[in-house]
Amino acid sequence: MAPLSSIQRLVVTIAVLASFVTFLDGTVVTVALPAISRELGGGITTQQWVVDAYLITLSALILLAGSLSDAYGRVRIMRIGLIAFGIASIAVAAAPDPLILIIARALQGAAGALLVPSSLALITAMMRGEVQARAIGVWTAFTTGAQLAGPLLGGLFVDYASWRLVFLINVLPIAVTLFLLPRLGVVDRPTGVRIDWWSGILCAVGLGALVFALIEQPHQGWTAPGIWIPGVTGIVLLTAFLVRQGRMEHPLMPLDLFRIRNFGWGNLATLFIYAALSLNGFVIGVYLQQGAGLGATAAGLASLPLTILMILLSSRAGGWAGRHGPRMFMTVGPLLMAVGALLLLTVSEEFSYWWQVLPAMIVMGLGLSLTVAPLTAAILGAVDERRSGIASAINNAVSRVAGLLVVAMLSTIVGGTLDLGGFHNAAWVTAALMALGGAVSWIGIRRPAAPTQTGAVPAA
């Protein structure tokens, strides 16, 4: 198998670094939540909003960002996103109270929405076939590694410095990416594609209203006007968004893409798998501190086996899927993760990381390594490179919305309190979601047709 060329390695490096900051910032906060709650107050509701404020704008605007990437150029949109993300990160670190923190997190998510689709689209637009699958495998290993290493880095800052420094970790990768971008040699040329701003508003406001209702309903109940009115409004606006997508000439989310078998079924699998990953990541980071009594660093170290296995195996899994097809990997991987989630049911009042958590992390790490790169390659490899930006945006939006909704429903899932019983409830739900992801993959995913090109596609 020929190694990646120098330009291909540069593309992958830029894509990894640009995505790194959004993936890292989405998870590094997890182990900082107890410290944020202690300093600023607000309990579990503040913890949910710190996570979901970021995910709301990231999820809602990532489709708009995909269209902007296709319309105005991936490099230009990536550069704007990097600068805005850095500024928002500083605002988060300086927040004096929960409200300012949540607002700054929402702005951070909006900037992050510009980064992920434009960065991954660089790979899908400039490489095809087995080379693309291998490159996506490398991208997946490091970006998912950033997600999983985030809690460890966050824990170190919380225990030995301040939770505020957690949000400044991304300054260095932002600076390096801005330095490398001009060396890519890609000239952005506007395509004249019309941007559907109204659809972006419908999606953002609809998601925000629905998530508000899901987070706040445990305190007021579904019958309270302050809950059911936003809930119904959110559903109506999201329905209007979908209807509008079917009627627009240049929609934010082209519904015809879902008629492509691997794209449609792959995104359904993404919904279940990433909901499970988000739920598991949240409860592990918080319960190991508040329930098991570990420090923030120790809680962050709990996920280190997943990080190591992802870095070691994900690139290989991407190459295997390129040769043998993604179906088996996307089936076996989630089922392994379901087994890993069920192993967390062994966690008891007499807590032992080595016997109760570590086996689950190893099994989940193996399953995750087999799943993520083949999943991404199956979805994006099914779409023509000219629509790679919007396809990447849709897939990332699906994964973010999955995490957004499951975190919003956290109080309902755990029974109001993240104690041992709530932790076990979350493990059952995680396992069920993973099993659904594996079943959907087996039913829907097929091996793609042989590509016409296996090398790099010249940059426009």
From TrEMBL:
<dbReference type="InterPro" id="IPR020846">
    <property type="entry name" value="MFS_dom"/>
</dbReference>
<feature type="transmembrane region" description="Helical">
    <location>
        <begin position="163"/>
        <end position="185"/>
    </location>
</feature>
<keyword id="KW-0812">Transmembrane</keyword>
<protein>
    <submittedName>
        <fullName>MFS transporter</fullName>
    </submittedName>
</protein>
<dbReference type="Pfam" id="PF07690">
    <property type="entry name" value="MFS_1"/>
</dbReference>
<feature type="transmembrane region" description="Helical">
    <location>
        <begin position="102"/>
        <end position="123"/>
    </location>
</feature>
<feature type="transmembrane region" description="Helical">
    <location>
        <begin position="227"/>
        <end position="244"/>
    </location>
</feature>
<dbReference type="InterPro" id="IPR036259">
    <property type="entry name" value="MFS_trans_sf"/>
</dbReference>
<feature type="transmembrane region" description="Helical">
    <location>
        <begin position="135"/>
        <end position="157"/>
    </location>
</feature>
<keyword id="KW-1133">Transmembrane helix</keyword>
<feature type="transmembrane region" description="Helical">
    <location>
        <begin position="77"/>
        <end position="96"/>
    </location>
</feature>
<dbReference type="InterPro" id="IPR011701">
    <property type="entry name" value="MFS"/>
</dbReference>
<feature type="transmembrane region" description="Helical">
    <location>
        <begin position="327"/>
        <end position="347"/>
    </location>
</feature>
<feature type="domain" description="Major facilitator superfamily (MFS) profile">
    <location>
        <begin position="11"/>
        <end position="449"/>
    </location>
</feature>
<feature type="transmembrane region" description="Helical">
    <location>
        <begin position="265"/>
        <end position="288"/>
    </location>
</feature>
<feature type="transmembrane region" description="Helical">
    <location>
        <begin position="12"/>
        <end position="36"/>
    </location>
</feature>
<feature type="transmembrane region" description="Helical">
    <location>
        <begin position="401"/>
        <end position="420"/>
    </location>
</feature>
<feature type="transmembrane region" description="Helical">
    <location>
        <begin position="294"/>
        <end position="315"/>
    </location>
</feature>
<feature type="transmembrane region" description="Helical">
    <location>
        <begin position="426"/>
        <end position="445"/>
    </location>
</feature>
<keyword id="KW-0472">Membrane</keyword>
<feature type="transmembrane region" description="Helical">
    <location>
        <begin position="48"/>
        <end position="65"/>
    </location>
</feature>
<feature type="transmembrane region" description="Helical">
    <location>
        <begin position="353"/>
        <end position="380"/>
    </location>
</feature>
<feature type="transmembrane region" description="Helical">
    <location>
        <begin position="197"/>
        <end position="215"/>
    </location>
</feature>
